[in-house]
Write a structure and sequence with these properties.
It contains eight helices and no strands. Helix content is 70%, strand content 0%. The chain has one domain (2-144): Alpha Horseshoe (Serine Threonine Protein Phosphatase 5, Tetratricopeptide repeat). The protein is mainly alpha-helical and 145 residues long.
């Protein structure tokens, strides 16, 4: 049941705004950012999911700080309950752009594993807390479980 709730929460407009707002601060060269955004746009329009995945992963290589590509990858794997892949996606994101949302997403993915990896999840929730001890309530909701 928790898995479905996480997907819906990630898909809300406020979650996207919160996750994507830091992207406005361009840390990559403009041409890399534009190329990565073009890959993400092409992936969204793609009807072949394998090709879309390739384009999204390619976008993370072109501009590892573009959060949008990670969000779509995370949602794809989340919808298929591939939580180890979700964790891998967000671990790569926080490597380049540490954020409360990124760490919480890794923690939630670790909780979705069977069996849940509580120690790893707690580690990532603590990292999120160290960045912001007062994050939005929705981001730390799963830490209560």
């Amino acid at each position: 049941m928790r898995c479905r709730r996480i997907v819906r929460r990630m898909a809300t407009a406020t979650a996207f705004v919160w996750l994507l707002a830091p992207c406005l601060i361009c840390q990559a060269g403009e041409s890399e950012r534009q190329r990565a955004q073009a890959l993400v746009s092409a992936a969204i329009r793609q009807t072949d999911s394998e090709q879309a995945l390739k384009q999204l992963w390619q976008a993370t290589d072109v501009d590892p700080t573009l959060e949008e590509s990670y969000v779509y990858l995370g949602m794809f794997y989340q919808s298929r309950e591939q939580f180890s892949e979700v964790a891998r996606v967000y671990e790569k994101l926080v490597k380049y752009r540490p954020s409360v949302a990124g760490y919480c997403n890794v923690g939630e993915a670790d909780l979705g594993l069977i069996p849940p990896n509580y120690d790893e999840a707690l580690k990532y929730f603590r990292k999120a807390y160290s960045l912001d001890p007062h994050p939005p309530e929705s981001l730390l909701e799963s830490a209560r479980y």
